[in-house]
Amino acid sequence: MIFDTHCHVYDEKYVEGEIEVIKKSIQEGVGLFMVPGDNIINSKKAIELASLFPEVYCAIGVHPSDVESLDIEEVISQLKELYKTSNKIKAIGEIGLDKYWVKDEKIIAKQKEFFIRQIELANELKLPIIIHDRDAHEDTLKILKEHPPLYGGVMHCFSGSVEYLKEILSLGLYIGLDGPVTYKNAITPKEVAKVVPLDRLLVETDSPYLTPVPFRGKINYPHYVKNVIEEICRIKSINSREIENTTCENGKKLFRIE
Question: CB of 155 within 8 A of CB of 131?
Answer without folding.
Answer: yes
